[in-house]
Amino acid sequence: MNGQLIPGAPTGTTGRGRRRGGVRFQALATGALLLVLTACGGGGGGSADGAKGPQAQGAGKQENAASQAVVTILPKDGADSVATSGALKVTAQQGKLTTVTVADSKGTEVEGKIAADGTSWQPTAHLSAGTQYKVHAVAKDAEGRESAKDTTFTTLVPKNTFIGHYTPEDGSTVGVGMPVSINFTRGITDPEAVEKAIKVTAVPSVPIEGHWFGNDRLDFRPEQYWAAGTKVTVHLNLDGVEGRPGVYGKQKKTVTFTIGRRQVSTVDAGAKTMKVERDGKIVKTLPITAGAPSTTTYNGQMVISEKYKVTRMNGATVGFGGEYDIKDVPHAMRLSTSGTFVHGNYWAPKSTFGSQNVSHGCVGLADTRGAGDSSTPAAWFYDSSIIGDVVVVKNSKDKQIKPENGLNGWNMPWSEWIA
């Protein structure tokens, strides 16, 4: 068949030669096209049928899509004069909160809690007044993508404020009967908010509860006297607490004190003696004079709240008119707000002590004028006592002292104290 012409073919071209030429041209063209595709498409990882190519993935999730979670913070960014309670809230929609941080300009963080379902956060304490806060919140959507938001706001500056005058003093060592007693400069109408802002702890740990006397005094104590050596810490976080409408606390302070040795002295008004017990042992029995039949001494547990080496006692200041006005009363220690003291007595004959009750309701010990003799019974007891020591009076023909009369909450049963 060599040299045979193929009908319709151009002259000089055989059928075999054309087929070969055409196949070669097609192969070259295909190779050029692949080269172009490789150069433009990057040659990335697709199989011959294109099943894993970019076009096939068009219906799947987008790796760089924005989070669907939406974080909302109240108050709004830049807000001013914000309320110290109830205004701060953080929420998340189409996602769950993972991080919420609220801190003042000094970096002090506000305690708070994310709800169990992750959709909200609220502070567990009030905010301070006149303070700038920064809020940082992060939430994740169902795909684990994060959305964050940051805001800044400033709390109100109150026009009317209150503080609490507290006892005992910071750094002091006191007796086992000393409560934490706080007297507020304004009457409190929201005692729950104020009490929540005060935390009293002890080492070793013991349950401590607060009790209100009226609307301006709050005392804290354990069920029994403190154990000797206990370390007590009081956190006063009153700054920003709305104690009554429009009146805010302006106090933030930490107070610590230590309980010293255990001293409890028992006055027997019938026997006219006082037994001083220290750490479980009777160290001294002293003759005393208690209240006369017409001016008897209160019964009950009383705590020494003040000590005066020398003072003046005027009956007019405690409802006795001009019955007495005694200067230079030595070694006086206050047991009640109403004027009950244990003190030195230099004006009664020494034979009175241990035999007669002649006072206007105080407990008297033999002494000299001006507290100059350190050997007297009154001087010894004064030098042996500290603020917070307990003096128990029994067998007096009088009623029990009221728990709010002085630092004498021990006269209230624990069940009433915590009610």
Automatic annotation (TrEMBL):
Location of region: Disordered: 1-21
Keyword annotations from UniProtKB, A to Z: Acyltransferase, Cell shape, Cell wall biogenesis/degradation, Peptidoglycan synthesis, Transferase
Domain L,D-TPase catalytic: start-end pairs: 263-394
SUPFAM superfamilies tied to this protein: L,D-transpeptidase catalytic domain-like (SSF141523)
Record keyword Acyltransferase present: yes
Positions annotated as active site in the UniProt record: 343, 362
One Pfam family recorded for the sequence: YkuD
Domain of life: Bacteria
Record flagged with keyword Acyltransferase: yes
Cited InterPro entries: Big_10, LD-transpeptidase, LD_TPept_cat_dom, Transpep_catalytic_dom
UniProt pathway annotation: Cell wall biogenesis; peptidoglycan biosynthesis
PANTHER family for this protein: L,D-TRANSPEPTIDASE, L,D-TRANSPEPTIDASE YCIB-RELATED
Protein name as annotated: L,D-TPase catalytic domain-containing protein
Source organism per UniProt: Streptomyces cinereoruber
Source lineage: Bacteria, Bacillati, Actinomycetota, Actinomycetes, Kitasatosporales
